[in-house]
Amino acid sequence: MDDAEAARVAADSRFRELVRRRGRFTWALTAVMLVAYLSFILLIAFDKALLARPIGAGVTSIGIVAGFVVIVLAIVLTGIYVCRAARGFDQLVDALRVEHDA
Predict the structure, then answer these.
(1) pTM of whole model > 0.70?
(2) Is the N or C terminus of the chain more exposed, i.e. has fewer CB atoms within 10 Å?
(3) Burial of 82 (C-beta count, 10 Å sphere; 0-12/13-18/19+)
(4) Helix (H) or strand (E) holding 77
């Protein structure tokens, strides 16, 4: 793709809409992950006793479960992004490619 073609694609309102929607969505997912991770780290730093408490009569602590939840949340957010990209973003990209013969 030459510079003129790239400029035409960049000027396309659908491309700008795609970039805006994808950016807003990815920043929202990033914010969710950052809040979860930062909350976990702050709990480690300031309330070790809470995280050290065992769950019920078992040996598994709240901290182990909280860490597991943070890991699972990352996997779930990745899945959400992949589904959203496959349903919406990829279709818009394909339409732009066909129109601009890229």
Answers:
(1) yes
(2) N
(3) exposed
(4) helix 62-84
DSSP letters, 28-58, are: HHHHHHHHHHHHHHHHHHH-HHHHHSBSTTS
Token pair belonging to 68: 């597991």
CB count, 10 Å around CB of 76?
Answer: 13
Helix, strand, or coil here: 27?
helix
pLDDT digits over 53-64, tens only? 999 888 999 999
CB neighbour class for 58 (10 Å; exposed up to 12, middle 13-18, buried from 19) = exposed
